[in-house]
């Protein structure tokens, strides 16, 4: 299409070239914009969207029971005993029921104003219509006003009007059964284990609901039936997550504060935290029962309260070293769950991964702080143990930093560094970055583009060894791999220590083409198999170089892919004259300024952090196989889809 457009004479580029996508068509054309991709995560997110609506009914006090069933044909059924989606004719579209409007129109919903829901996970009026658009079959039944109604849809289009099925004097609520469309999701199938976990976590998040789980598919590990109801909410959840782990506090620091009572506004915060030395810390946060995987303001408020509490306690206990504790120390070994309910939350993106409501930080901080102070004062045994543990962490961190500084100052000369490494000058690891660059020519532009103080470069020649299946002596003999290890200051396998790393971020920067994707995949597999903690602790990133530069008169724009290019070609850049399109065949073709502006400078670049989906430990080996399989296209597609293994950062 973009090439067609370029070769089309200007006179045929008229109004007829401008497409307006109607109804739910845009969702089917670009599902990624609405559910973050067409991968496994997106597929399961479909169920979350529907379940969240039932949860919203429960949290609003209208439903007490939800049923989730995985059916043999790969469909999912979600039933609640809430008010039922309204079925009367919609005032704006009198020939359609409200139900049809909700399911077939983007931005139709009852959660924009606060009339029908106080705090809800839903807010955009998009979720159920998107699921409808991406399902080849969706059946919605509503029991309301003692009648049972039904309407069926396929790919977002009603198969007929809403029909009355008969009397339902003792029932109320909504039942949605949908089957994800293979045209969108290919051969991917919903997994009972993942849905089981999702369903269970919802019950932990709202103690006022009972959730029943059923599966007609036996995967050999997931229960076929279960009932979830957790009166102690998050404390139960945390105890379950940490069962068998030695913790510093006998019972977690857990609680719940109603914002209504404390500040006179709707909402609440619930939390549970404990500390352990036996595993890395984690924080899992939720807003209106929707998981916020990238955290946000509620997490910031929580850690602020924790930090102030511990420091104040340390001061009272005359422990001067408590002043050294930072948020980083709180995070190592601190295992926390927090769940906030607020009205009209704002998120970054439809998948709601990061909460951005600013006031949430203050509300959570104020709500948790007093409770934490009291808890520390009342349970002095746990408080003392936690304080000692955190002080130890702080001391360890400072010692490591000091060692690192002296190491960088004195030992860089002694360290054997690869000849082709262009090192940075910073004395200290914090904030430094190593770009592993494809090809020497790219290394040339990158030299001019980098910040000499913080950004180092290691150009790689061609492809590194495929480490899957390679014998370990082969690994040690491979010069590219040796260079990487020496530049990073680390060893492979069991001898790898994150603390030895000479840089904070390791950024893989390859061309935006299939070869580049292959090299990136080889490198990721290498790090995954030989230096796994480097990924787990968030040090590995992918750079995102643009594919095109568009110039129109004085206006210039870099775009990532064909779709974006097409969009801007049709829209224009706002400059004068024809739009000139330059496709970068490789990083080496970009001049230093372009590379700096688009890919390397922290203020204007986009980086993708490589991470492993904790929910899917079983799939990681599949993933490595997939990355390293026979077809490079697959890897390329995988890296492009990246959402399932990696997440976006500093856009
Ligand atoms: N199970 C249900 N019970 C009652 N009403 C429902 C149910 N599911 C959906 N609705 C109604 O349909 C509306 C649209 O739902 P939809 O999932 O499309 O968007 P949303 O939940 O408002 O927002 P978001 O796009 O953020 O999910 C909701 O606002 C609610 O009024």
TrEMBL record:
Pfam families: DNA_gyraseB, DNA_gyraseB_C, HATPase_c, Toprim. ATP binds at residues 13, 53, 80, 122-128, 352. One of its GO terms (molecular function) is DNA binding. Residues 432-546 form the Toprim domain. Its EC number is 5.6.2.2. GO terms for biological process: chromosome segregation; DNA topological change. It catalyses: ATP-dependent breakage, passage and rejoining of double-stranded DNA. Heterotetramer composed of ParC and ParE. This is DNA topoisomerase 4 subunit B. It comes from Pseudorhodobacter antarcticus.
């Amino acid at each position: 299409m973009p090439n067609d457009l370029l070769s089309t004479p200007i006179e045929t580029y008229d109004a007829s070239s401008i497409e307006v996508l109607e109804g739910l068509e845009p969702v089917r054309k670009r599902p990624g914009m609405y559910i973050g991709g067409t991968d496994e995560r997106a597929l399961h997110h479909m169920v979350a969207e529907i379940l969240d609506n039932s949860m919203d009914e429960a949290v609003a006090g209208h439903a007490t029971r939800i049923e989730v069933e995985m059916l043999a044909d790969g469909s999912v059924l979600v039933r609640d005993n809430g008010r039922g989606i309204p079925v009367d004719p919609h005032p704006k579209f009198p020939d359609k029921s409200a139900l049809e409007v909700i399911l077939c129109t983007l931005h139709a919903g009852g959660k924009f104003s606060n009339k029908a829901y106080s705090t809800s996970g839903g807010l955009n009026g998009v979720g159920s219509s998107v699921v409808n658009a991406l399902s080849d079959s969706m059946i919605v039944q509503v029991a309301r006003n003692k009648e049972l109604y039904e309407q069926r849809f396929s790919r977002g289009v009603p198969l007929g009007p809403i029909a009355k099925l008969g009397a339902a004097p003792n029932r109320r609520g909504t039942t949605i059964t949908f089957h994800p469309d293979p045209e969108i999701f290919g051969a991917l199938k919903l997994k009972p284990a993942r849905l089981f976990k999702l369903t269970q976590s919802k019950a932990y998040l709202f103690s006022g609901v009972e959730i029943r789980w059923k599966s007609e598919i036996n995967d050999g590990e997931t229960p076929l039936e279960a009932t979830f109801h957790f009166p102690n909410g998050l404390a139960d959840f945390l105890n379950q997550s940490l069962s068998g782990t030695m913790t510093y506090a006998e019972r977690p620091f857990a609680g719940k504060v109603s914002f209504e009572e404390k500040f006179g506004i709707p909402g609440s915060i619930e939390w549970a935290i404990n500390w352990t030395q036996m595993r890395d810390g984690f924080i899992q946060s939720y807003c209106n029962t929707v998981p916020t995987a990238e955290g946000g303001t509620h997490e910031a408020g929580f850690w602020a309260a924790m930090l102030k509490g511990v420091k104040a306690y340390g001061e009272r206990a005359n422990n001067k070293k408590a002043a050294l504790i930072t948020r980083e120390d709180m995070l190592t070994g601190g295992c926390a769950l927090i769940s906030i309910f607020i009205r009209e939350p704002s998120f970054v993106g439809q998948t709601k991964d990061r909460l951005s409501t600013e006031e949430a930080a203050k509300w959570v901080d104020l709500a948790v702080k007093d409770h934490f102070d009291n808890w520390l004062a009342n349970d002095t045994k746990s408080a003392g143990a936690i304080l000692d543990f955190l002080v130890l962490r702080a001391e360890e961190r400072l010692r490591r930093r000091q060692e690192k500084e002296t190491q960088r100052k004195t030992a860089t000369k002694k360290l054997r560094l690869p000849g082709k490494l262009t090192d940075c000058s910073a004395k200290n690891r914090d904030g430094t970055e190593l770009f592993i660059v494809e090809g020497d020519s790219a290394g040339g532009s990158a030299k001019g583009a980098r910040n000499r103080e913080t950004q180092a470069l290691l150009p790689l020649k061609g492809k590194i060894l495929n480490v899957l299946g390679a014998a370990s002596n082969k690994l040690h003999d491979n010069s590219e791999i040796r260079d990487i290890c020496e530049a990073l200051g680390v060893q492979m396998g069991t001898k790898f220590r994150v603390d030895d790393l000479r840089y904070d971020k390791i950024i893989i920067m390859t061309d935006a083409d299939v070869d580049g994707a292959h090299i990136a995949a080889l490198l990721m597999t290498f790090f995954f198999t030989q230096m796994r903690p480097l990924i787990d602790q968030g040090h590995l990133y992918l750079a995102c170089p643009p594919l095109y530069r568009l110039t129109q008169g004085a206006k210039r724009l870099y775009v990532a892919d064909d779709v974006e290019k097409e969009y801007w070609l049709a829209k224009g850049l706002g400059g004068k004259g024809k739009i000139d399109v330059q496709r970068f065949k490789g990083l080496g073709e970009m001049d230093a300024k372009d590379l700096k502006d688009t890919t390397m400078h922290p203020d204007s670049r986009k980086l993708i952090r490589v991470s492993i989906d904790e929910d899917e430990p079983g799939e990681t080996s599949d993933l490595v196989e997939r990355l390293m399989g026979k077809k490079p296209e697959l890897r390329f597609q995988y890296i492009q889809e990246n959402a399932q293994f990696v997440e976006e950062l500093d856009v």
